[in-house]
């Protein structure tokens, strides 16, 4: 039994292991996966002295609690939340030393959705296709955490950063997503395209790592026939039969048969990861990606 490990005390609603994902396998039907808020994961790794691609824990809404078997340095980034070490408040957004056997409790998100927990040495579960990420769609990678799960840790590298609090963008009060229209915007009526790029939507509670679902005005089709299944990219805005746009996130399917009205700029997707249910959403048409 190695002492370089974390024991999960409270798994939370959904806590997964994530790194930069496994790009380049779409032809095998394997999504990219990886941390939804990639800048938050990279910042956490930088704060604890890890390389940018080290695996972290990604929590959803209500956090998690873990007990390290050895002393570790951790940093909690992403959605702001209460951080407690053995009952004592600790800092969010900065390196924190957690003694062996102490419980690190990452609380409910105060705003936003997903917090990242970076640990010195990184989460060292076995990689699959070059990544340690949990993929909820294909089932690759480690299963979502459950109470009692033991997670091995890598060896800590360079010393952690010395900062009071690292600046991070606040979760969006209104989510503005810049989209390049197409490739199937001509499958919708001109009025539907106008509605898509001018009316407000809301983030649906049915959203997950696969896609951000929206509530709002339905988009009417100009072409009512069936679309042959075609490749899907990260950020694709697919419109299912109910007419409400769905923004594909990291665990999205690699093919789909509903028309894609536009594609969200990659730099906007981390904000989508932190948009809580009910957050207003606006799609803004731009040229190119």
Query: What structural class should be given to the helix and strand makeup?
Result: mainly beta
Please provide the ordered H/E string of secondary-structure elements: EEHEEEEEEEEEEHEEEEEEEHE
Instruction: Give the biggest sheet.
Output: 7 strands, mixed, barrel
Q: Any low-confidence stretches, pLDDT <50, length ≥5?
A: none
Strand % is 25-35%
Quaternary structure state of the chains depicted: single chain
What's the number of helices? 3
Summed up, what is this model?
By secondary structure, the chain is mainly beta. It has helices at about 40-50, 190-195, 270-275, and strands at about 5-10, 15-20, 55-60, 65-70, 70-80, 80-85, 90, 95-100, 105-110, 115-120, 150, 175-180, 200-205, 210-215, 230, 235-240, 245-250, 255, 260-265, 280-285.
Task: Tell me what the structure shows.
It is a single chain. With 289 residues, the protein is mainly beta. Helices cover 8% and strands 30% of the residues. The protein contains three helices and 20 strands. It has helices at residues 38-48, 190-196, 269-273; strands spanning 5-10, 16-18, 56-58, 64-68, 72-78, 81-85, 88-90, 96-98, 104-109, 115-119, 150-152, 175-181, 201-203, 211-215, 230-231, 236-238, 246-248, 255-256, 260-264, 280-286. The protein has a seven-stranded mixed beta barrel with strand order 12-19-16-17-14-13-20. A six-stranded antiparallel beta sheet has the order 7-6-9-4-1-11, with no helix packed on it. It is elongated.
């Amino acid at each position: 039994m190695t002492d370089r490990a974390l024991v999960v005390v409270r798994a939370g609603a959904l806590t997964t292991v994530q790194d930069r994902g496994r790009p380049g396998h779409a032809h095998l039907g394997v999504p990219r996966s990886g941390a939804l808020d990639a800048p938050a994961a990279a910042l956490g790794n930088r704060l604890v002295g890890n390389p940018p691609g080290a695996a972290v824990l990604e929590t959803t809404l209500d956090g998690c609690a873990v007990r390290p078997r050895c002393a570790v340095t951790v940093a909690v980034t992403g959605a702001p939340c209460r951080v407690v070490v053995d009952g004592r408040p600790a800092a969010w957004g900065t390196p924190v030393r957690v003694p062996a056997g102490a419980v690190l409790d990452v609380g409910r998100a105060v705003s936003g959705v997903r917090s990242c927990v970076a640990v010195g040495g990184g989460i060292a579960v076995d990689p699959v296709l070059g990544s340690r990420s949990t993929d909820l769609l294909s089932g690759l990678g480690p299963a979502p955490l459950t109470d009692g799960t033991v997670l091995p840790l890598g060896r800590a590298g360079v010393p952690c950063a010395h900062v009071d609090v690292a600046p991070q963008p606040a979760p969006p009060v209104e989510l503005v997503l810049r989209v390049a229209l197409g490739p199937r915007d001509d499958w919708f009526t001109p009025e539907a395209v106008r509605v898509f790029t001018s009316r407000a939507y809301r983030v649906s509670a049915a959203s997950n790592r696969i896609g951000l679902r929206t509530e709002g005005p339905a988009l009417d089709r100009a072409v009512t026939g069936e679309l042959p299944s075609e490749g899907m990219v990260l950020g694709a805005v697919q419109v299912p039969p109910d007419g409400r746009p769905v923004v594909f996130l990291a665990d999205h399917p690699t093919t789909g048969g509903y028309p894609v009205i536009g594609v969200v700029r990659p730099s906007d997707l981390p904000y989508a990861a932190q948009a809580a249910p009910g957050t207003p959403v606006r799609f803004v048409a731009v040229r190119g990606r």
